[in-house]
Amino acid sequence: MKVSVWDTYVQRKDGKTMHFDILVPSNFKNETQIISFGNSYLSAKTFETKSLTADICNFCHIETAPESVVDDISKKGYSIIELKNCN
């Protein structure tokens, strides 16, 4: 499966910047829904962050997804890859 990778940076209330990717099927183009996926992910965190906006979530590239990402997408419609300051 080909997926679109949305590169995302969010300021945490403690001053750290989170960096994570939101992955969706490559044919999925609804940016409002992609932002909603990111905000859903953030709401499950134990620390506070600023809200996710289109200014800090940008399409980056398309790649072939590993099976774990395909499984996430089939269950939730998206997958998150945590890169920095996500825990």
Automatic annotation (TrEMBL):
One Pfam family in the UniProt entry: DUF2024
Entry protein name: DUF2024 family protein
Source domain of life: Bacteria
InterPro entries (alphabetical): DUF2024, NE1680-like_sf
